[in-house]
Amino acid sequence: MAVAADKPLQEHPDRYGPDADSAWRHVDWAAHQHWVLVDGTPVNYIEMGEGPPLVLIHGLAGSWQNWLETIPYFARTRRVLAPDLPGFGDSPLPPEKISMPGYGRLIDHFCASVDVERGSVIGNSMGGFVAAELAIAHPQRVDKLVLVSAAGITAEHQRNERALAVMRRFEAALAWASTHPKPNFLLRPRGRQALRLVFAHPEKLPGPLLFEQAKGSGKPGFIDALDALSDYPLRERLERISVPTLIIWGERDRLVPLRDADVFEELIPDARKIVYADTGHVSMLERPARFNRDVEAFLKGSDPVAGG
Fold first, then answer.
1. Spatial CB neighbours of 84, under 8 Å, sequence gap ≥ 6
2. What is the pTM of this model?
3. Fold entry, domain 30-158+231-299
4. What is the mean pLDDT of residues 157-186?
């Protein structure tokens, strides 16, 4: 199974952004795309590599492409699976209303459908909320948990407030940008303005990578998922997470505040936190070398570097 393992991966461990010629650009992604029927919903997913399972869960307005800098790295030693949540990416809306418990249940059933009895799980933003829900409600599936700028704390106070309007405007801007035929358009002033809500320095990221991220926008699940984020309390249930948990946050996250990382670290019994300096909402794309190194150390049972 080709995973471009011979391609050098992130030679500068603390730099902002990936190498211009990242490993993901040398992968035949169509060869790794699959479909599985889960609870009556077709789910699109990427699978690459062999070894202990690693499940990656994207965030709001996202898709499996949020993990382009992550999948080839870990597929060298693990079986990596990155689904599109129903209503996002290429997966159609589920038959029932979108909810965080429903997404957690779907990931549990997805794992059963693809013969993952137990594995490590990484979730970003809304995907972090879903990953936490999976660890709480279906603990048999998760052996280690990584929460990357996870939603679920501040979101409980944001229902019908300005933050929801900001997210809607951001998603609309990305949806419009994703239709532009030239990837580098997202590095022009108009595209860059919207991207600054997510990335600390969008101008430092390759245009093709940003263009792939925009593909996750404009999907039918956005509004229902946005409402679901603020409609289900998570804080009081975090103490039920029983697995080792790594919390990774960007110091300049403008979507989910850094103070939320402190809450996750305080309430999850076996949790440790890393904050990346001068980084926004998607650490795995903004500092992929550092992210991959820290997560790999955690999954192997070592302590990642705690500094910024």
1. 43, 44, 45, 58, 63, 64, 90, 91
2. 0.89
3. Rossmann fold (3.40.50)
4. 55
